[in-house]
Amino acid sequence: MSQINQPKPPGSKASWLPVILLELANLTSGLGNAVVLVAVPWLVLEVTGSPAFTGIVAGSSAFAALIMSPLAGWWVDHVGRRTVSVISDILSAVSVVAIPVIALLGEITPPLILILAALGAAFDPAGYTARRTLLVEAARASRIDQERLNGIHEGIFATGFTLGPVIGAVAIGKVGAAQSFWIPFLLFAVAAVAILLMRTTQTSGPTPPTGTVGWRGVTRGFVVLWKDGPLRLTFLGALVLAAIYLPSESVILPTYFEARNEPGSLGLVIAALAGGSTVGSFAYGWISSRMSTPTMLRLMMVGTALSIIPMALLPPLPVLLTAGFFLGLFWGPLNPLMTTLVQKRVSPEEQGRVFGVQLSVWYAAPPLGMVLVGYSVETLGISTTYLALAALLSATALTILFSRSLRQLDA
Question: What superfamily does domain 17-200+220-410 belong to in CATH?
């Protein structure tokens, strides 16, 4: 089964270098993706002025990542963790630098933005999945508690998403949306170099095959996850929440602040969301040692529902920032919780594929949600759309809150 509770090799020396390099890549990748998160919708709105097309671009990017997520898990398990991480960051760097280069040489068109945004998103799942599968090796090398490192890992990634929107907003104000993409280009390059330099006592190469090849090998992650009740519950809960939560970041808030010509305010709100998520992620190790998993998940559901309601009212900026922080705070422990459940319940040779499937949580439902939200904003308005999303998230939270399946999470 898993390696999470296996003892460290006797006589081995603790080394923090693998953890430092892994988390450097984790931080710079998070920063790069957060800058892109702000710059892409702003660029689309500058070029087209259409919230609906902004939703289409966001949805197409999420759909590309959805398609690649299970393939990324299979790739990690068969090609090797370090190799996949490095290649994916290099490809991400190339996809984002194409935007400022083309802007300098010619004209950025809406179809071109759509294609480049989708290509960039397609490379993200492989790198994210590969870094997750390297966590066990890094924890063993440093002799750090695995659940603590899981929380640190997700917290550092969230830190990138806290600082990234601010960096992106400042860059947009200084050099324009198109030229701001030079920043994620450099950040993805640093991430690739950090993982290239990472060494542990293990090979970080492909894991032994499990007898599933071809399409069955790619879909193995779905089979393993679906047969495990606690993993399935967490997967489905996150799937529904992501379908509601992510369109607000990608469509509603950019449209609201672009109409007010306030890129700085957009960056602050997204940073508040990510800042709360950072605190929640870092606190996961402490919380998990004091609270059962079902209780933790119930608290997350109630907290997200109570936090998004005031945000949907689009109050003054200080209130919006406060509500956004708490929404991120209750959302934050979800990723390290999912990582820990996989490490505890899935064999090492299949973890990459299951992580790939779990990553698709963030991409499966949001594509349709983003497109629908974009059209809803254009036809019904921002306020009506946001209130409807808040009501839907609250109803989902209540449904999960009273689910009997929650009790199986500690089984």
Answer: MFS general substrate transporter like domains (1.20.1250.20)
